[in-house]
UniProtKB/TrEMBL annotation:
Its main location: membrane. This is alcohol dehydrogenase (NADP(+)). One of its GO terms (biological process) is aldehyde catabolic process. Keywords: Cell membrane, Cytoplasm, Membrane, NADP, Oxidoreductase. It is found in: Apical cell membrane; Cytoplasm, Cytosol. PROSITE patterns: ALDOKETO_REDUCTASE_1, ALDOKETO_REDUCTASE_2, ALDOKETO_REDUCTASE_3. It comes from Albula goreensis. The lineage of its organism: Eukaryota, Metazoa, Chordata, Craniata, Vertebrata. Residues 90-365 form the NADP-dependent oxidoreductase domain. Catalyzes the NADPH-dependent reduction of a wide variety of carbonyl-containing compounds to their corresponding alcohols. Displays enzymatic activity towards endogenous metabolites such as aromatic and aliphatic aldehydes, ketones, monosaccharides and bile acids. Acts as an aldehyde-detoxification enzyme. Also acts as an inhibitor of protein S-nitrosylation by mediating degradation of S-nitroso-coenzyme A (S-nitroso-CoA), a cofactor required to S-nitrosylate proteins. Also acts as a S-nitroso-glutathione reductase by catalyzing the NADPH-dependent reduction of S-nitrosoglutathione.
Length: 397
C-alpha cells in the first residue's frame, strides 16, 4: 500500500475520499485512497504528497474568490507530470452555442469551477474569452493563476509552420498570455487552410498527411516560448501515444478521449497511467444532446440502472457518472449551458460510490463510441475518416 501524507495537519477530515488505482499491464496493482476535509473555512491551499503520479490534491477556494454560490465548493486536482494541478472536474464547451457559452463560463466560474476546456474547432473561444475577461485579472474575483485553461490545435493546422500561429490565435481569442495545456485535437491532419472541414466536390474530407510526431515537435516549441505550460493529446490510441513518447522532448501530460460507462476505456487508461499520462474524459455523460443520435436511441442518463443508483444516493444520474470517473482518477469535462446543471456537475465530492456500484457501472461497458464522425455510405452510417493512415480507432485501444 502506498502511503500519503498531508500538509494540512490539525484540520478535521471527513471519511470521504477518492480511490485511485495505479495500473500495470495486467490490471490494478497498487491502490491509493486519498481523503480530504470538507471544511470551507480553511484559507490557502492544501497538498497531498505521494510517490506515484498522477494523484489528487485538495485545493479549496480562498475566501477572496468565493461567491454566495461557491461558498461550500472545492475541487480536488490531479497532479500532472509537469507538477501542474488540473482540477478533476472542468467545464466542457463543445457544442455550446454562440450566445450561450459566455454565460455558461461565467456561471461555472461563479460556482467554483477553475478548469475550462476549449478548442479552436468549437468556434466559440472568443466568447469564452469575454467571460474570462470579466472574471479574471487585477481587481476581479479571480487571478490568472487560479484557472486551468485547455485548448486544442485543429487538424488543418498540423503543418509545423502553422502551429504557432494557431496557438497565438487561440490566445488572442481567449484573451490570455498563455495556456495551461494545449492538445493536438486528433492525430489526423486535414488540408491546410481556413476551412475547419475542407471538403472535396463529393463531400469527402480533403486530408493532409503531416505525421503527428512532426506536429508534436512544433508544439514543443510553444512550451519553450512560454506560450503554453504543457502539451498533450486527444483521441490518440496507445500505439500513437508511444510514438509521441519515443521522440518527445516535452512529454504529453494528458490524453483526452471519449469515456463514459458505455465506453470505459480501461485498457487505454492503464496504458496512459503507466506512462505518467493523465486521462481526461470528454462527453463523460454520453453527450445526450448529440444531434446525430438515431431516433429512439437510448441515452446514458436515462439508463434505468444509472437512474436506480442515483436514486439510492439521492443524486442525479449525471452526478453519479461524474463521481464514478472521479473515483477512477479520470478528469471530467461535462458540458452544460444550464446554470443549475453546471452547479450540480461539480457537486460530486460529498459522497462516495461503493465498490459494488463502481463495478456495476463498469459492467455497463459496450465499447460503444458515441462521438465519432460518420458519413452515409450505401445507405449505412460508417466512420468517416477510416481511410486516413493516422485514424486512431482501428487499433483495439
Amino acid at each position: 500500500m502506498t502511503t500519503c501524507t498531508s500538509s494540512r495537519e490539525g484540520q478535521s477530515r471527513s471519511n470521504l475520499g477518492i480511490l485511485f488505482l495505479r495500473y500495470k499491464t495486467h490490471g490494478p496493482q497498487v491502490q491509493l485512497t486519498i481523503k480530504w476535509s470538507t471544511q470551507t473555512a480553511v484559507i490557502g491551499r492544501g497538498r497531498v504528497n505521494c510517490n506515484i503520479k498522477p494523484f489528487v490534491t485538495f485545493i479549496p477556494l480562498s475566501v477572496s474568490h468565493r461567491t454566495a454560490s461557491s461558498e461550500a465548493m472545492s475541487c480536488p486536482c490531479v497532479l500532472l507530470s509537469t507538477g501542474q494541478k488540473i482540477p478533476i472536474v472542468g467545464l466542457g464547451t463543445w457544442k455550446s452555442a454562440p450566445g450561450q457559452v459566455k454565460q455558461a463560463v461565467l456561471s461555472a466560474l461563479d460556482c467554483g469551477y477553475r478548469h475550462v476546456d476549449c478548442a479552436a474547432a468549437y468556434g466559440n473561444e472568443h466568447e469564452v474569452g469575454e467571460a474570462l475577461t470579466e472574471r479574471v485579472g487585477d481587481g476581479k474575483p479571480l487571478q490568472r493563476e487560479d484557472l486551468f485553461v485547455t485548448s486544442k490545435l485543429w487538424n488543418t493546422q498540423h503543418h509545423p509552420d502553422d502551429v504557432e500561429a494557431a496557438c497565438r490565435k487561440t490566445l488572442t481569442d481567449l484573451g490570455l498570455s498563455y495556456m495551461d495545456l494545449y492538445l493536438m485535437h486528433w492525430p489526423m491532419a486535414f488540408q491546410r487552410g481556413t476551412e475547419v472541414m475542407p471538403r472535396n466536390a463529393d463531400g469527402t474530407i480533403r486530408y493532409a498527411y503531416t505525421h503527428y510526431t512532426d506536429t508534436w515537435k512544433a508544439m514543443e516549441k510553444l512550451v519553450d516560448q512560454g506560450l503554453v505550460k504543457a502539451i498533450g493529446l486527444s483521441n490518440f490510441n496507445a500505439r500513437q501515444i508511444d510514438d509521441i513518447l519515443s521522440i518527445a522532448k516535452h512529454k504529453p501530460v494528458v490524453n483526452q478521449v471519449e469515456c463514459h460507462p458505455y465506453l470505459i476505456q480501461s485498457q487505454l487508461l492503464s496504458h496512459c497511467v503507466e506512462r505518467g499520462v493523465a486521462v481526461t474524459a470528454y462527453s463523460p455523460l454520453g453527450s445526450p444532446d448529440r444531434p446525430w443520435a438515431a431516433l429512439g436511441e437510448p441515452l446514458l442518463l436515462d439508463d434505468p440502472r444509472v437512474v436506480d443508483i442515483a436514486h439510492r444516493y439521492g443524486k442525479t444520474p449525471a452526478q453519479v457518472i461524474i463521481r464514478w470517473q472521479v473515483q477512477r482518477g479520470v478528469i471530467c469535462i461535462p458540458k452544460s449551458v444550464t446554470p443549475s446543471r453546471i452547479q450540480q456537475n461539480i457537486q460530486v465530492f460529498d459522497f462516495k460510490l461503493s465498490s459494488a456500484d463502481m463495478k456495476q457501472i463498469e459492467s455497463f461497458n459496450k465499447n460503444e463510441r458515441l462521438i465519432i464522425p460518420t458519413i452515409e455510405k450505401d445507405g449505412k452510417k460508417v466512420w468517416r475518416d477510416t481511410v486516413h493512415p493516422h485514424f486512431p480507432f482501428h487499433d483495439p485501444y
